[in-house]
Amino acid sequence: MTLVVSLSGVVTRVLPFQVPLPLIQIAIGALLAWPTFGLHVEFDPELFLVLFIPPLLFADGWKTPTREFIEHGREIFGLALALVVVTVVGIGYLIYWIVPGIPLIPAFALAAVLSPTDAVALSGIVGEGRIPKKIMGILQGEALMNDASGLVSLKFAVAVAMGTMVFTVGGATVEFFKVAVGGILAGFVVSWLYGRSMRFLSRWGGDEPATQIVLLFLLPFASYLIAEHIGFSGILAAVAAGMTITRSGVMRSAPLAMRLRANSTWAMLEFVFNGMVFLLLGLQLPDILSSSLVAAEADPNVETWMLFTDIVLIYAALMLVRFGWLWTMRKLSQRFLKKKPMEFGSWTTRELLISSVAGVRGA
């Protein structure tokens, strides 16, 4: 798989037209999984989350400008919290209406899976410099933070469907803050302990770049696993650890050799891990499509064309809800927040459309 990821970069340069690298990797994965080639990789979602997501989100948190993140806090949390709830409710009812036989609570659960944007997919597909900086900063911050609200929504929907929990607004709010704040604190503490251990090792064992880089590589996994074990958001813990490393000065005070090696090592790991994420997605596509088509043909109440129609309708509705939310925030900001308007207040309709389409769903 590493070889295929490496060669995919060559393919993008050979093509006479520009295609985002992740889309090439998805296509290669789907081609390799086709019966002609027959490459099959067992997909374990839990193992996938532990192996790939923590280091990629840690790297995104590391690269996120903390000052801009705080400056755009209202916009980011409006998208990451309120918009997720609106999307879960609105899209949940749409799925319940257009998909025959699906109960309302499972429809909400599916909407909760689709509601958060994906930081890994956003940074991989959109790339650097393709979107105006002021929009990209907010989109990246949203993608890093909205997993907590999406996961809490999914958890409540599943629990209500199984009859183990009764939904209340107060209970959902408390659960969200527990998961989110706990995950952020866990990432901060683990990152702080890493900084202290680095100072101790430098004082007693000298500056050994290889050892320091290995420990840095283990940091996102430690943050994720510790937070998940306690019952907090491991995703937010990995993000918080990356952002803490940036602000704590641990890297700035590290020896030059360690910083140079760390930057080059993380660039290589990001390329390989991002490529494997999209390659694995492509490898799963043929099985997913074939099983869905077989299930549709076996069900007399479902037509095959209805599956593709439902996909188009749901995706269009996601874009419409997102655009409607951004447009509403722009109007509210222009009318009620004239002294300190939100960033949305100065956005043009074109920029609102870009932000609506660029909210990449990794699910």
UniProtKB/TrEMBL annotation:
Its job: Na(+)/H(+) antiporter that extrudes sodium in exchange for external protons.
Organism superkingdom: Bacteria
GO BP annotations listed: regulation of intracellular pH; sodium ion import across plasma membrane
Entry annotated with the keyword Ion transport: yes
Keywords, comma-separated and alphabetical: Antiport, Cell inner membrane, Cell membrane, Ion transport, Membrane, Sodium, Sodium transport, Transmembrane, Transmembrane helix, Transport
Protein name: Na+/H+ antiporter
Lipid bilayer topology: Multi-pass membrane protein
A GO cellular component entry from the record: plasma membrane
InterPro entries according to UniProt: Cation/H_exchanger_CPA1 (IPR018422), Cation/H_exchanger_CPA1_bac (IPR004705), Cation/H_exchanger_TM (IPR006153)
Gene Ontology terms for molecular function: potassium:proton antiporter activity; sodium:proton antiporter activity
Main location: membrane
Transmembrane residue ranges: 21-41, 76-99, 105-127, 176-195, 232-250, 262-285, 305-328
